Amino acid sequence: MENRDQNLTAWRGDTIGIISPESSADERFQNQTLRPILKLQNDLFVLVFKNHISKHKNDFYTLAVDKKLQFIENAIQKDIKFRNALKGMVIALFTLDEYDLYIKNSSALNKRMMNMLIERLKSQVQLFDVAFSN
């Protein structure tokens, strides 16, 4: 398992964001673990969301931008199966030590994780336009 953990951390890359002595444990976890994983998995998240659109509400493409942003937020916050699939895509890339930290405060870390993912997808909403949907 040690080899797995070393490979994961090397593959994900460096910490994203500032970590200071005043940083909370959750903030450190966010910047050392969650941000690099979300960045690594970005293309997969985009494809998964496109698939979600096609399976649940193809009229997404006709919505105004503000409604598209709301759709992204609602999809992740209210569709529990979808949210759990997204969480699984992140948790699968945790090291064993990171998972131990995660389970101690999973509720707060899940909230951070999903909020960061929502913002990431919203910032790329143009990728969900019909011209990019293929």
What features would you describe in this structure?
This protein has 134 residues and is mainly α. The protein is built from 7 helices and no strands. Helix 2 packs across helix 7, helix 4 packs across helix 5 and helix 4 packs antiparallel against helix 7. The longest helix has 17 residues. The model has no long low-confidence stretch (mean pLDDT 90).
Task: Write a short abstract of this structure.
This protein has 134 residues and is mainly alpha-helical.
Share in β-strands: under 5%
From the N-terminal CA to the C-terminal CA, the straight-line distance is 38 Å
Helix content: over 70%
Secondary-structure-derived class: mainly alpha
Q: Biggest sheet: strands, sense, closure?
A: none
What integer value in Å does the Rg equal? 16 Å
Q: Helix count, per DSSP? A: 7
SSE order, as H and E?
Answer: HHHHHHH
Low-confidence stretches are none
Tell me the overall shape. elongated
* Average pLDDT for all residues: 90
Question: How many beta-strand elements?
Answer: 0
Features:
134 residues, mainly alpha, elongated
Topology:
Blueprint: H1 2-12, H2 25-40, H3 42-56, H4 65-78, H5 80-91, H6 96-104, H7 106-122
